[in-house]
Amino acid sequence: MDNCQEFIDNSSKAAPVRGYLHHAAASGADCLILTHGAGGNCNSSLLIGLANAFCSAGLTVLRCNLPFRQERTFGPPPRGSAERDQVGLRAAVESMRRHGSGHVFLGGHSYGGRQASVLAADEPGLVKALLLLSYPLHPPQRPEQLRTQHFPRLQTPALFVHGTRDGFATTGEMEATLKLIPAQTELLSIPGVGHELMKKQNRDTLPQQIVHAFGSFIGLPLV
């Protein structure tokens, strides 16, 4: 899209912010920050599709690479990188606050969404709401290894988007686990898809479906 440009902000000493900024037509628009999973980057088809759809609906969108991905092109995050990746997301939030006057929302796919939720649990009020795509509730086939320790501390409203064939959690597991969160939550189930969420058959419809659900969740007329 013509309103998308590369974005680099090195003002934070803790972590640089790097990615692509999709400018909304209205000045002072609310902003959504989106980041990627452990095996991807901010140029995934899911994030690009969502960024374009949310921008068309009136939000400025930053899709950004986490610090670990800025340092290595391929491979999963190294052990011990989670804390710095959370610092990187905080830097992205601070950067977007300097670039606009609206609310800031934070979201991510899988690992990126998990780090966003941990950051929000540690810093209530940092962002207005969360958009968590394919939250990795536990490793595939290891349901006892839950990644929910921070859920009882999460005070930020969160919309979870979950594929019904996701190996990282069943729909029933997600519904049960969200009861641990004291903040407002909602689960949007996408039938017939796995952890990747976007497939060829829903590439044209999924982004708009998520935009509509998130707009309804946060009380904004996103269409």
Task: Outline the fold blueprint.
Layout: E1 4-9, E2 17-22, E3 31-35, H1 45-56, E4 60-65, H2 67-71, H3 82-99, E5 104-109, H4 111-122, E6 130-133, E7 158-163, H5 171-177, E8 185-190, H6 206-218
Describe the structure.
The chain has one domain: Rossmann fold (3-Layer(aba) Sandwich). The longest helix is centred in the middle third of the chain and has 18 residues. The chain is α/β, with parallel strands linked by helices. The model has no long low-confidence stretch (mean pLDDT 94). It contains six helices and eight strands, in the order E-E-E-H-E-H-H-E-H-E-E-H-E-H. Helix 1 packs across helix 6 and helix 3 crosses helix 4.
